[in-house]
Amino acid sequence: MIYNDSRLDREERERQIENLLLAFGLTLLAGLATGIGSVLAFFTKTTNTRFLSLALGFSAGVMIYVSMVEIFFKAQDSLVNAMGEVPGKWVTVAGFFGGMVVIAVIDRLIPKAGNPHEVKKVEDMSASEPAVDQSHLLKMGTFTALAIAIHNFPEGIATFTAALNDPSLGIAIAAAIAIHNIPEGIAVSVPVYFATGDKKKAFKLSFLSGLSEPVGALLAYLVLMPFLNDVMFGVLFAGVAGIMVFISLDELLPASRRYGEAHLSIYGVVAGMAVMALSLLLFI
What we know:
The chain is an all-alpha fold. The protein is built from ten helices and no strands.
């Protein structure tokens, strides 16, 4: 019996380590998708706006559906179990809107000129020659990369938390955020190129800006994990749902419509929701 108990404990620890490594790996891959946006500057002359419109709509559909159907109710179940039905539901709603407030404040603090959600296209890389005041433009380009790094930080926490709790759910969220990060990579590369005239530097800064997502995951592990209980988990998951819904409504859908046709955007949303619904039914 003692042998069996120790073997079960060892298997549980191994499973937890595997989930932890998977959560970090998914967050890293999602963050580094900004580099894909930069690579487009090297291998394409124009942006495939129809595909990007569909992809951004698809990402929004995945994130909205999984947030409202799966993550929100997981948070609510955890909080209701810990606090009781009425307080648990109130705290869930507060955490949901609290997540929205956090990401909205971050978005407001980023000036429009450096905001990674301003639509940029690959063809912009050759639309203008670098300006003369190199020191000023270099500072502006570096700030753009810093802006996206700050914004991606809570996304890293969201991806890591979801993947750690449910690897299947984490894979879906990481894929959606990775799609969302591709045009952000373009948005970083274009102004950095204008600042330096150097495509390699534009790629490097865009690639490095994505590292803020695994840094967010590391912070979540070091700071939040020691205190993780049902209440902390529920509040964190509710906040993650709010962050993802806000990102979808404030960034992904408007960008999807600007990149392409309105119908393409909504087709992408419906397809994303359908794929997420099917995966929840089959695998989660």
